[in-house]
Amino acid sequence: MTLRLSCLLVVALGALHAQTGFRIVLTGDSIINRRLSVIKDPGYLAMFEPMRRADAAFTNFETLVHNFEYPGAAVSGGSYMASPAFVIDELKWAGFNLFAVANNHTFDFGVEGMRSTLRALTAAGVAHAGAGENLAFARAPAFLDTSAGRVALVSCASTFTEGSHAGTQRPDLKGRPGLSPLRFSTIYGVDESTMQGLRGLARVATPNAATTTGPLRLGGATYEIAAKIGVRTEPSKIDLDGITASVRESRRQADWVVVSIHAHEGKPESREIPADFLVTFAHAAIDAGADVFVGHGPHVLRGIEIYKGKPIFYSLANFIFENETMPFQPNESYQAQDLPLTASVADFYDARSKNDTRGFPPDRPIWESVVAEVVFNSDRKLEEIVLRPITLGFGEPRSRRGIPRPASGELGREILKRAAKLSAPFGTIVEISGDRGIVNAKR
Question: Could you give the CA distance from residue 319 to residue 32 in angstroms, rounded to a whole number?
Fold first, then answer.
């Protein structure tokens, strides 16, 4: 009798999960060094309500948690990231419970900086994926238990610093700690005469590797004869197969699967258009069982695609962008700006941006984005996507920019129009209703 009741309870719980649907809020990059909870403005506080009422809330945690115990790596992803441990609690306060950690800053302070961050996230009790002690751990999904069922997160990066990608464990040798990579190749399409010239160069430069037919590899690049001169990219088969295997495993182990990628790479004509390999990967992830695909990395918005009834966000830009608030930077950063040892960190930030006239500060699209709320119904069908525009303080001084706030009025409509324009080539219609953008998946 007890066994029968237990079985009925399991069935009932499964049915409950199946009937409730699923609601997830997605954001882009969070580079956070300051407290969110101290601001009391009602409009600002209301911005976090969708995260808190959702079953899951995702952000890319694009920083490292440590106290500068470790030296900066020889190469960084830009600014050397360092944040106090309280930032995780602040993100939890905001409602976030799913964190991607695979990005170009994962190894800013080497393997120990990565390990310190993973320990802090684990201690905080949040689900995080994308990096680990070897490739299997980096590729493994993180799981979040919710009233709508179990959620799996698979995280990877195509943009990362040299040596920061994880290695495979062998029976006789430990794997290398690092992030889950999605490498890719770039192929240049050229005309016949150009190819002949390249083959002639190859016969001189690499006589043993030169070819007379087919694609040509020269100087680390691949060339092929094409009807139209251009550039295309393809994902690495070994990485694509490894990541999609993790997605398929997640599909078997969870009720909902989210796939995340940190990808700066875009088309040559525009950073707002995703690279070919990214589209290929997004489709492959959905085919393998992902319910949601979320991209981030270029710090600007990209379009939304609905593929086989599942949403693909090619980039949600920034949610928090406090990349000028780290109190220390390694000497390599100062040297790059021709600054002496006596220079302060404020001197460095001023020199790098040339007093806010170059780089990120004067680039308005960097400071404008959306928060996406995705709703699935009780039949697991995508019902709608709600886009809420945010501004991170374009034109504000360093002490105030980078903090998200709702973008209303004309600014909000401009941001939503940009999202609609970028999504249109994918056949996605974003309707603007007041201060929100709506993608009605039932149309």
Answer: 9
What residue spans define the domains of the chain?
Answer: 22-183+232-323+360-440, 192-225
Task: Determine the CATH number of domain 22-183+232-323+360-440.
Answer: 3.60.21.10
Its pTM stands at 0.93
**Cα 181 from Cα 132, distance rounded (Å):** 12
Residue 91 has pLDDT above 90, yes or no: yes
- Residue 392 tokens read as 């991170």
Q: Which two tokens stand for residue 294?
A: 């979320």
Q: What's the Rg (C-alpha) of the chain?
A: 23
- Nearest of 375, 373, 332 to residue 352 by alpha carbon: 332
Q: At a CB cut-off of 8 Å and minimum separation 6, what does 322 contact?
A: 31, 32, 33, 34, 402, 403
Is the separation of the CB atoms in 55 and 144 below 8 Å?
no
Closest CA to 180 of 250, 243, 253: 243
Using CA atoms in the order 124, 125, 131, 132, what is the torsion angle rounded to 10 degrees? 100
How many of the other CB atoms lie within 10 Å of CB of 174? 10
pLDDT in tens, 280-295: 999 999 999 999 999 9
CA distance 75 to 302: 28
Provide CB contacts within 8 A for 48, sequence distance 6+: 94, 95
